[in-house]
Amino acid sequence: MAAGIGNLPQAIDYYKTCKQLLPDSIEPRGELVKLYEITGDMAARDRERTELLYLHKTTTNKQTKAIDHYLRDLFAVGSYSVAVAEYFDLIGAWPSRYRFFILNEQGNTIYTIALSSSTAANANAEKLLGHPTKEWIFHLDLESEGAATTFKIFEGEPSYDTVKPRVIEAIRQQELKTQPQP
Description:
- It is a single chain.
- This protein is of the alpha+beta class.
- The protein has helices at 8-21, 26-39, 42-58, 62-66, 119-123, 125-129, 160-178; strands spanning 69-77, 80-87, 96-103, 109-116, 137-144, 147-155.
- It has a six-stranded antiparallel beta sheet.
- A hairpin with a 5-residue loop joins strand 3 and strand 4 (109-116).
- Helix 1 runs antiparallel to helix 2 (26-39) and helix 2 packs antiparallel against helix 3.
- It is globular and about 50 Å long.
- The N and C termini lie far apart (43 Å).
- The model has no long low-confidence stretch (mean pLDDT 89).
Protein backbone atom coordinates (compact mmCIF):
# COMPACT_ATOMS: atom_id res chain seq x y z
CA MET A 1 0.00 0.00 0.00
CA ALA A 2 2.80 2.44 0.90
CA ALA A 3 4.45 1.99 -2.50
CA GLY A 4 1.10 2.53 -4.23
CA ILE A 5 0.78 5.97 -2.67
CA GLY A 6 4.41 6.88 -3.34
CA ASN A 7 5.92 6.27 0.09
CA LEU A 8 8.77 4.08 -1.15
CA PRO A 9 10.95 4.23 2.01
CA GLN A 10 8.00 3.02 4.09
CA ALA A 11 7.32 0.25 1.57
CA ILE A 12 10.98 -0.83 1.72
CA ASP A 13 10.83 -0.98 5.52
CA TYR A 14 7.61 -3.00 5.32
CA TYR A 15 9.10 -5.59 2.94
CA LYS A 16 12.30 -5.82 4.99
CA THR A 17 10.12 -6.79 7.95
CA CYS A 18 8.18 -9.27 5.80
CA LYS A 19 11.45 -10.81 4.67
CA GLN A 20 12.45 -11.39 8.30
CA LEU A 21 9.05 -12.85 9.20
CA LEU A 22 8.78 -14.98 6.04
CA PRO A 23 12.36 -16.14 5.31
CA ASP A 24 11.26 -18.76 2.72
CA SER A 25 9.00 -16.38 0.80
CA ILE A 26 9.89 -15.07 -2.65
CA GLU A 27 7.44 -12.15 -2.51
CA PRO A 28 9.13 -9.79 0.01
CA ARG A 29 12.51 -10.22 -1.67
CA GLY A 30 11.03 -9.69 -5.13
CA GLU A 31 9.27 -6.55 -3.93
CA LEU A 32 12.54 -5.25 -2.50
CA VAL A 33 14.33 -5.87 -5.81
CA LYS A 34 11.60 -3.89 -7.57
CA LEU A 35 11.54 -1.07 -5.00
CA TYR A 36 15.32 -0.68 -5.03
CA GLU A 37 15.23 -0.54 -8.85
CA ILE A 38 12.56 2.17 -8.72
CA THR A 39 14.48 4.21 -6.13
CA GLY A 40 17.77 3.81 -8.03
CA ASP A 41 19.60 1.94 -5.25
CA MET A 42 21.28 -0.54 -7.59
CA ALA A 43 23.70 -1.92 -4.98
CA ALA A 44 20.80 -2.86 -2.69
CA ARG A 45 18.83 -4.16 -5.70
CA ASP A 46 21.69 -6.42 -6.76
CA ARG A 47 22.30 -7.64 -3.21
CA GLU A 48 18.61 -8.46 -2.74
CA ARG A 49 18.39 -10.17 -6.14
CA THR A 50 21.42 -12.33 -5.35
CA GLU A 51 19.76 -13.40 -2.09
CA LEU A 52 16.48 -14.06 -3.92
CA LEU A 53 18.15 -16.24 -6.56
CA TYR A 54 20.05 -18.12 -3.86
CA LEU A 55 16.84 -18.70 -1.89
CA HIS A 56 15.08 -20.09 -4.95
CA LYS A 57 18.02 -22.32 -5.82
CA THR A 58 18.59 -23.75 -2.34
CA THR A 59 15.16 -23.81 -0.70
CA THR A 60 13.60 -27.08 0.44
CA ASN A 61 10.17 -25.40 0.60
CA LYS A 62 8.15 -26.94 -2.26
CA GLN A 63 5.89 -23.89 -2.64
CA THR A 64 8.85 -21.54 -2.96
CA LYS A 65 10.62 -23.88 -5.39
CA ALA A 66 7.48 -24.12 -7.55
CA ILE A 67 7.50 -20.37 -8.28
CA ASP A 68 9.11 -19.82 -11.67
CA HIS A 69 9.34 -16.00 -11.78
CA TYR A 70 8.85 -12.78 -9.85
CA LEU A 71 7.85 -9.21 -10.76
CA ARG A 72 11.24 -7.53 -11.09
CA ASP A 73 10.42 -4.00 -12.21
CA LEU A 74 7.66 -1.53 -13.07
CA PHE A 75 8.20 1.61 -15.11
CA ALA A 76 6.54 3.86 -17.67
CA VAL A 77 7.46 4.61 -21.27
CA GLY A 78 5.32 7.32 -22.81
CA SER A 79 1.68 6.42 -22.21
CA TYR A 80 2.51 2.77 -21.48
CA SER A 81 3.24 0.97 -18.24
CA VAL A 82 5.78 -1.84 -18.32
CA ALA A 83 5.78 -4.79 -15.92
CA VAL A 84 8.86 -7.01 -16.00
CA ALA A 85 8.96 -10.65 -14.95
CA GLU A 86 12.31 -12.32 -14.30
CA TYR A 87 12.34 -16.10 -14.63
CA PHE A 88 14.55 -18.10 -12.29
CA ASP A 89 15.48 -20.95 -14.63
CA LEU A 90 15.99 -21.30 -18.35
CA ILE A 91 13.87 -24.40 -19.02
CA GLY A 92 12.49 -25.70 -22.30
CA ALA A 93 13.25 -25.15 -25.98
CA TRP A 94 12.52 -21.37 -25.89
CA PRO A 95 13.04 -20.12 -22.31
CA SER A 96 12.87 -16.48 -21.28
CA ARG A 97 14.97 -14.71 -18.66
CA TYR A 98 12.96 -11.47 -18.78
CA ARG A 99 9.50 -10.72 -20.15
CA PHE A 100 8.48 -7.07 -20.48
CA PHE A 101 4.69 -6.73 -20.61
CA ILE A 102 3.71 -3.47 -22.29
CA LEU A 103 0.36 -2.35 -20.89
CA ASN A 104 -2.06 0.27 -22.15
CA GLU A 105 -3.90 2.75 -19.91
CA GLN A 106 -6.55 0.10 -19.13
CA GLY A 107 -3.86 -2.31 -17.91
CA ASN A 108 -4.18 -4.69 -20.87
CA THR A 109 -1.07 -6.23 -22.42
CA ILE A 110 -0.57 -4.81 -25.91
CA TYR A 111 2.58 -6.82 -26.66
CA THR A 112 5.58 -8.30 -24.88
CA ILE A 113 9.30 -8.05 -25.34
CA ALA A 114 11.26 -11.05 -24.15
CA LEU A 115 14.91 -11.82 -23.61
CA SER A 116 14.97 -15.47 -24.51
CA SER A 117 17.26 -18.16 -25.70
CA SER A 118 16.43 -21.14 -27.83
CA THR A 119 17.94 -24.36 -28.98
CA ALA A 120 17.35 -23.20 -32.58
CA ALA A 121 19.27 -19.93 -32.07
CA ASN A 122 22.14 -21.75 -30.40
CA ALA A 123 22.27 -24.37 -33.16
CA ASN A 124 22.62 -21.48 -35.66
CA ALA A 125 24.88 -19.26 -33.54
CA GLU A 126 27.68 -19.01 -36.07
CA LYS A 127 25.27 -17.97 -38.83
CA LEU A 128 23.52 -15.43 -36.57
CA LEU A 129 26.72 -13.87 -35.23
CA GLY A 130 28.98 -14.29 -38.23
CA HIS A 131 31.59 -16.11 -36.13
CA PRO A 132 31.82 -19.20 -33.93
CA THR A 133 31.07 -18.85 -30.23
CA LYS A 134 31.11 -20.95 -27.09
CA GLU A 135 28.66 -18.56 -25.40
CA TRP A 136 24.93 -19.25 -25.18
CA ILE A 137 22.96 -17.02 -27.55
CA PHE A 138 20.14 -14.78 -26.30
CA HIS A 139 17.71 -12.80 -28.43
CA LEU A 140 15.47 -9.85 -27.66
CA ASP A 141 12.11 -10.39 -29.37
CA LEU A 142 9.00 -8.29 -29.74
CA GLU A 143 6.02 -10.66 -29.47
CA SER A 144 2.64 -9.57 -30.79
CA GLU A 145 -0.37 -11.39 -32.21
CA GLY A 146 1.38 -14.77 -32.22
CA ALA A 147 4.48 -13.56 -34.06
CA ALA A 148 7.97 -12.81 -32.75
CA THR A 149 10.36 -10.32 -34.31
CA THR A 150 13.98 -10.46 -33.15
CA PHE A 151 15.65 -7.07 -32.95
CA LYS A 152 18.84 -7.85 -31.03
CA ILE A 153 21.04 -10.92 -30.57
CA PHE A 154 23.47 -11.21 -27.66
CA GLU A 155 26.48 -13.45 -27.34
CA GLY A 156 26.15 -14.61 -23.75
CA GLU A 157 23.44 -13.59 -21.30
CA PRO A 158 23.22 -9.79 -20.98
CA SER A 159 22.50 -8.08 -17.68
CA TYR A 160 19.15 -6.46 -16.94
CA ASP A 161 20.88 -3.08 -17.06
CA THR A 162 21.95 -3.83 -20.65
CA VAL A 163 18.52 -5.06 -21.74
CA LYS A 164 16.23 -2.44 -20.17
CA PRO A 165 17.43 0.57 -22.25
CA ARG A 166 17.07 -1.47 -25.46
CA VAL A 167 13.53 -2.39 -24.47
CA ILE A 168 12.68 1.25 -23.76
CA GLU A 169 14.04 2.18 -27.20
CA ALA A 170 11.99 -0.59 -28.84
CA ILE A 171 8.81 0.57 -27.08
CA ARG A 172 9.39 4.13 -28.26
CA GLN A 173 9.90 2.89 -31.82
CA GLN A 174 6.69 0.85 -31.62
CA GLU A 175 4.84 3.87 -30.25
CA LEU A 176 5.99 5.95 -33.25
CA LYS A 177 4.72 3.25 -35.64
CA THR A 178 1.26 3.30 -34.09
CA GLN A 179 0.79 7.07 -33.96
CA PRO A 180 -1.37 8.55 -36.71
CA GLN A 181 0.67 10.30 -39.38
CA PRO A 182 -0.23 13.91 -40.29
